[in-house]
Amino acid sequence: xxxxxHLLFGLLCLLxxxxxxxxxxQRRHPSAAVAWVLLIALMPYAGLPLYLIFGSRKFVRPQPHxxxxxxxxxxxxxSATIATLxxxxxxxxxxxxxxxxxxxxxxxxDELVALATAARHQLDLCTYQLGNDPLGQQVxxxxxxxxxxxxxxRLLLDSIGSLGTSRRTIARLRATGVQxxxxxxxxxxxxxxxVNLRNxxxxxxxxxxxxWSGGRNLAAEYFTxxxxxxxxxxxxxxxxxxxxxxxxxxxxxxxxxxxxxxxEAAGPPPVPPPHDGARxxxxxxxxxPDQAEDTMHDLLLTEIFRARRQVLAVSPYFVPDxxxxxxLCLAARRGVQVELILPERSNHRLxxxxxxxxxxxxxAAGARVRLTEGMTHAKAVVIDDTLAxxxxxxxxARSLFLNYELMVAFYAPADIAALNRWLSATFAxxxxxxxxxxxxxxxxxxGLVRWLAFQI
Length: 456
Known about the structure:
Layout lengths: L1 H22 L6 H13 L1 H11 L19 H4 L2 H8 L6 E2 L2 E4 L3 H14 L3 E6 L6 H15 L3 E7 L8 H9 L3 E5 L19 E4 L3 E5 L21 E5 L2 H15 L23 E7 L7 H12 L3 E5 L3 E2 L2 H12 L3 E7 L5 H6 L1 H10 L2 E5 L7 E4 L3 E5 L3 E2 H5 L3 E6 L2 H14 L4 E2 L7 H15 L2
Parallel strand pairs: 3-4, 4-5, 10-12, 11-16, 12-13
Antiparallel strand pairs: 1-9, 2-8, 3-6, 6-7, 7-8, 9-17, 10-14, 13-18, 14-15, 15-17
C-alpha cells in the first residue's frame, strides 16, 4: 500500500504539472520540459514544490491576435517588423524628438546626471543592480538631492541583483523622501511571481518626458571601472519624446507589482510627437513574464529569417535555443553577413563554456565571431538598414525566456546608422575567433553545462 501511495502521489504531481502547463500556457523548451518531468517523476516530494516555486514563467495568457488598425505612420506600420510586434499586443512606434547613443561610460553618466537634474515633477529609476561602491553612492546622493528639491523620486531595485546594496544607503534614501521598493523579494506572496523571474530592465525616466536606458546597471564597472580594471563596454542611450511616457507606464506596472498603491500623482502633460513622423521612429519592446508572447525571441527569429545583407549582434553571453541558432546559421549559409561580438572571457564562466558548441556551429555555417579583450556588456542587434535594437536583453535562455527585459526598436535610418557606427568604432580591435574541434568528452561536458544551467 505504501508503494501504491507513493505512485499515486507521483502521478498527481505530474497531473499538476500538466494542468498548470496547459492552463497557464507555459511554453517551454523541450529539454526544460523533460527536465521538469524527470525531476517530478523521480523525486515528487521535492520536485513538485520546486516546480511550484520556480516553474512558471508567464503571468499573462495569450490573447487572440487582431490586425492593428493603420495609424498615422502608414508606411512604417505596414512593415513586417511593426506588424509582428503589433500582433503580439505592442503599440505602434512613435516619432521621438531626439535620440542619443552614449559613446562610453563617462558620457552615459553625464547624460544620467543631466536627466535626473532636469526632472521637475517626478524621477523614476528601475535597475537590476545598485552597486555598493562609490558610483552607487553618487547615484544615492543624486536621488537625495532631487527628493529634497521637491521632486517625487521612486527607486525600484531587483531584490536579487541588488542583494549587496547597502541597507544603510536604502535607509538614508528613505529618510530624505525617496520611495524605494524591492522587486520580488525572496520571501513574498507566491501569487505575485517566482523568485527565479528577475527584473533585468534598466529605466530612468524624468517627468515622463525623457528616458535613459540600455544595458548599464548603476554600479562602478558599467561607468568608471573598479580599481585598476577599466569600465566594461556597454551600450545605453537617451530618448526625448513619447517613448518616455510609455516607459513610465511600464515602470508603474512594476511598482504596482511590489504591492504599492496606484500612482495618483499628476504629472506634466504628455509630450506631443514631432511634426516629422519619420524622424527618430522608435518603439518599446518589453519581454518577459508580463508579456503573453516571447516577444524578443519571436522578433529576432522573424528579422533574422527576413535579413538580406547583415545581422550584427553584440552580447556578453551567447546561449541561444536551437531555433535562434538555426536561424542565424541559415542566414549565414544563404549569404547574409552574420557577425557576433562577444567578450573573450565574460564575468560568468558557465556561460563561456555553454556557448562553445553554438559558436562552432555558427563558424561552420560561415558566420563571423569576434572576441573583445575586456568585458563587453553591451546588448544590441542591427539587421540590414531597417532595424536596430538596444537594451537589456542578453542572447541567452534566461534573458529570452525568463527575465523581465526591455529593448528599444529604432527604425529611423539615422539612428540605425548611429548605432552601427558606434559598434564599428567600439569593436574595431575585436579579434576573429577560430573555432577549433574539441574532444567528445569536452563536447558532452559543454552540452551538460548548457542543459543544466540554462534551461530551468
